[in-house]
Amino acid sequence: MKPRDYCCCAIPTVYVGIYATLIEQFTLGVVAGTLSVATPPIVGAATFSAAKWIFAIICYVGAGLQVLGFISVFQERSIMYRRYTTLHLLITLAGFSVAAVWIAISAARHKTAKANCEDRFFKNTTEPSEANTLCDIFPWVDIGLMAGLWVLLAVAQLYFYIVVSSYGTGQRLDHEKYDSMGDSFASVDHITGDKQYDPYSGPSYPSGPFQEPIPEPHTQDPYYSAYNAGGSMPRAEPHAGV
Fold first, then answer.
1. Inside any domain, residue 113
2. CA-CA distance, 240 to 104, in Å (whole number)?
3. Sign (positive/negative) of CA torsion 47, 50, 51, 52?
4. CA nearest 22: which of 58, 59, 65?
5. Contacts 24+ apart (CB under 8 A), 146-153
6. Mind listing the pLDDT tens digit for each residue in 86-127?
7. Based on the structure, what is the number of domains in the chain?
8. What pLDDT, in 10s, does the model give residues 71-82?
9. Residue range of the domain that includes 63
10. Which terminus of the chain has fewer CB atoms gathered within 10 Å of its CB, N or C?
11. pTM of the model
């Protein structure tokens, strides 16, 4: 997942955005789990009695996972955060899958929901036609509301998962850059093996005074040597008998 600089278009992901996202996930898990067991039965729901507790447990587990996310962000532990991201995705998929199954079961058992509605709200009514009409409409309205809420929360959770996952990607990239910097410094410190690297040291030169090389002697022309030395030119020897 590509790292994101901002969350919700204006909030910096580091660190305000990721903390706000984790708080939202924690709050959603607690609220959804509490509402599933603390509110009166829904007219359109036609599931077994333990269904709400299954959904509540999943929501509370998801809320508890956010504590792991807080710790991994606060302590900059990328491996722990990666595990949190995986578990968060799995528990989110489990919650939405269970909710989708409950909605589908309620829609398929519309007659049961209608009968429960009539027995609960119109047991002693004198107008059975009114009870029949209202209890036929309200379950479908509840099904539509539950399906719409499911889609809305699914879109929101998808976006927040992208934020959570992208933060993990950025966190791992930062750790890799930091580790690579440490490796480069270590290689510079040990560039000469057992001798520490000195950036101001240069190649070694002889400590004694500099001496120019002495040219090798060579044989010159005698005439040139005498003339060059300032002497006179040699005279020719007289011929014998003159």
1. yes
2. 147
3. positive
4. 65
5. 146/42, 146/44, 146/45, 146/99, 146/103, 146/106, 147/103, 150/96, 150/99, 150/100, 150/103, 153/28, 153/96
6. 999 999 999 999 999 999 999 998 888 888 888 887 777 667
7. 1
8. 988 888 888 888
9. 6-187
10. C
11. 0.67
